Amino acid sequence: MKTVTFLASVLLSLALVIGCADSTEQRLRQVQNELAQVLRTALRDGDIRMQRASDHLTVVIAERLLFDAGSYELKPGGIEVLKQMGVLFKTAPFKEIRVAGHADKASASDGSNQYFEKLALSKARATQTVRVLRGNGMDSQSFIVEWYGDIRPIASNETEDGRQLNRRVEIVLYAGV
Questions:
Q1: Distance of CA 11 to the CA centre of its chain
Q2: In a designed cystine with 136, which of 86, 95, 106, 165 is the match (CB 3.0 to 4.6 A)?
Q3: Cβ atoms of residues 50 and 36 within 8 Å
Q4: 115 — phi, psi (to 5°)?
Q5: Is residue 111 part of a domain?
Q6: Is residue 148 a part of any domain in this protein?
Q7: C-alpha dihedral (116, 117, 123, 127), degrees to nearest 10
Q8: Which residues pair with 147 in a beta bridge?
Q9: CA-closest candidate to residue 66, choices 176, 175, 170
Q10: Do residues 78 and 65 make contact, with C-beta atoms less than 8 angstroms apart?
Q11: Cα–Cα distance between 48 and 70 in angstroms, integer?
């Protein structure tokens, strides 16, 4: 009898875990669809890309939408996009929102200072992005700010197109309560 009770308990736990995974994926799919509606122009223009996994949704925003080259001050259009995203994020419970700034690796003209400049720029950009997202009254506890400078490229830094792809802000939304 104890074995049957134990097996029933294990099966119930497994069903709950699977159910949670399904609801997490459904929640992320819903957020992705809502973001696609709100940000359809930026998606069409290639300024924003989204990728969904089982437990998170990654939103990649190109530098050109948010910032001028070499600047950490947000463009007015970028602020508007982030405000729209913040409103949407506030309606969906996320246990964690990671905002990461990334930079390209241009040719080294001034030696080792370039690494630290890119690191500082990516930090400032991630911080400014979070500042706007939090402006919608979101819980600041759910945000994690990360900055990588030029150490996590997604394309070759040998071409301008590749460097453009590497200059980005990534917002990773982890579902949960």
A1: 35
A2: 86
A3: yes
A4: -60, -45
A5: yes
A6: yes
A7: 150
A8: 101
A9: 170
A10: yes
A11: 19
- Which tokens hold the place of 42? 């930026």
Look at residue 13 and tell me if it is in a domain.
Answer: no
Q: Side chain identity at 48, as an amino acid letter?
A: I
Structure tokens at 74: 């947000």
* pLDDT of the residue at 110: 53
d(CA 152, CA 140): 26
Are 95 and 142 within 8 A, CB to CB? yes
Between 15-29, 75-89, 90-104, the lowest mean confidence (pLDDT) is in 15-29
Per-residue pLDDT at 77: 96
Looking at per-residue pLDDT, the higher value among 80 and 112 belongs to 80
In a domain, 123, yes or no: yes
- In whole angstroms, what is the distance from residue 86 CA to residue 64 CA? 19
List the structure tokens of 53: 């996994």
CATH number of the domain residue 127 falls in: 3.30.1330.60
- The predicted model gives 29-40 an average pLDDT of 92
Q: pLDDT band at 65, cuts 50/70/90?
A: very high
Domain assignment of residue 110, given as a range: 28-175
- Please report, in angstroms and rounded to a whole number, the separation of the first and last CA atoms in the chain: 36
pLDDT band (50, 70, 90) for residue 158: very high
**Look-up of token digits 């949960």:** 176
pTM more than 0.90: no
